[in-house]
Amino acid sequence: MIKQNEPFRQIQVQTCPVCGHKINLAMKVNSDTPGQPSHMFWGFPGSRRRVCQAGAWFHFIADVDGEDVHRLAYLMKKAVGPGDPVQMTPDISPVQLTLGGGLLIPQRPGGAR
């Protein structure tokens, strides 16, 4: 288990809030750059590929022992604010997004914003 003060903290996100794909592992990461800081969560350079990205969310596939594993990073230093297409934190659960006017709009259960 990762401690609160470490640069990585596991979060409970079942599906990517951008594309909706099932996620195997999600982490809050104290960074603004995918792949940094160095950690086994990212997998090895050359064995991972980006699936999608919006705002602070970064969905990627890591090759783990020959299997594709979908992982999701919430980049804490990539501020989520006005103009960011995904204005939420990973603590909103369940995460559901709808497409409206070209922007991804977060929806809470029951449709309230």
- Report the mean per-residue pLDDT as an integer: 73
Poorly predicted runs:
83-113
- Which term fits the overall shape? globular
**Roughly how many Å apart are the termini?**
32 Å
Q: What's the arrangement of strands in the largest beta sheet?
A: 1-2-5-4-3
Order of helices and strands: EEEEEEE
How large a portion of the residues is in β-strands, by DSSP E? 35-45%
Number of domains: 1
The number of helical elements comes to: 0
What characterizes the major β-sheet? 5 strands, mixed
Rg on CA atoms, Å: 14 Å
How much helix, percentage-wise, in residues?
under 10%
Class of secondary structure makeup? mainly beta
Number-wise, the strands total 7
Overview of the molecule:
It contains no helices and seven strands. It has about 110 residues and is mainly beta. The protein has one domain (about 10-110). Strands 1-2-5-4-3 form a five-stranded mixed sheet, with no helix packed on it. A two-stranded antiparallel sheet has the order 6-7. The radius of gyration is 14 Å and the shape is globular. The model is unreliable at about 85-113 (pLDDT under 50).
How would you describe this structure in keywords?
five-stranded mixed beta sheet, 7 strands, two-stranded antiparallel sheet, disordered C terminus, 113 residues, single chain, globular
Concise synopsis of the structure shown:
The chain has no helices and seven strands. By secondary structure, the protein is mainly β.
Topology, pairings included?
Blueprint: E1 8-11, E2 25-29, E3 48-54, E4 57-64, E5 67-75, E6 96-100, E7 103-107
Parallel strand pairs: 2-5
Antiparallel strand pairs: 1-2, 3-4, 4-5, 6-7
